Amino acid sequence: MVLKINFKLERVNHHLEQSFYGAEPGTMIVGADVTHSTGSKAPSVAGVVATCDADSGRYLASARLQENRTEHIAQLREMVEERLLAYMKHHPEDLLPKHILFYRDGVSESQYGMVRRYELSQVQEACRILSQKYQLEPPNITMLVVGKRHHTRFYPASTSADADKNLKPGLIVDHTVVTPEYQNFYLQSHDAELGTARSGHYVVIDNETGYSPEKLQELTHNICFTGSRASTSLSVCTPVRYADILCGRLRDYMRPIFEADNLGDKSLNEYCADSSTWKPAGNGATRRNPWNSALDDSMFYL
Fold this sequence. Notes:
By secondary structure, the chain is α+β, with helices and mostly antiparallel strands. 27% of the residues lie in helices and 19% in strands. It is built from seven helices and eight strands, in the order H-E-E-E-H-E-H-E-E-E-E-H-H-H-H. It is globular, with a radius of gyration of 20 Å.
């Protein structure tokens, strides 16, 4: 509880000795997720979080409603622009980041092409718009999809003295049992004392920065140690976990609609303008995020 309160007050719980967690200097780290209502025609909700500095691990948020059961993030360009502008606010000397490291959660294997076609292009467009506006070089984008709902498990050898325990954190599997068609790896980043540990599956969609497989694996593992609510490593990298937490908060905002028996025929714009659930009162007609603007620079969603 104290860790959560401290971070919400814009203070630092811990950070790594390596700036940017071992990534290239000037890197903005992003996490994104989509959540859907269960068994209703209510809108889906998309959330994006992104760092605004090199060391503290503060991930500021953006959110949008989109059409029911839309799997790709329909308004990702707008949200990435918001996150880039927040980064520029905290880096007036550099303005745009030099690199973006983007982790996308909640995507099945059949949707990797969708992410490349509809989401990577939106991130590139957001970078292009702001780079032209400020006469700067656009960031290099490295995008990964993070899978958690898979059936792959790894165990110690049966002859090992620890055969009845989970493997130690830091396990990387990037050959033999992974597909050879694209760069991907399994990372067991957490210490699971109970049950069977489930490794995160990371699939590289694009790598404009040019990270080697080993470097990308190392920095992803480093990022897993930066969760503000834990003193140990997380089971998936921190931006993905934060995006998941943000979507949980957004579901709470939309709970009256998600649980309604009869939604009627309201349009997406009507849902976005509904002050009882999504539209914050007194924040102007153009505001798109559902929380008060005073919370924009805090990790209120933790």
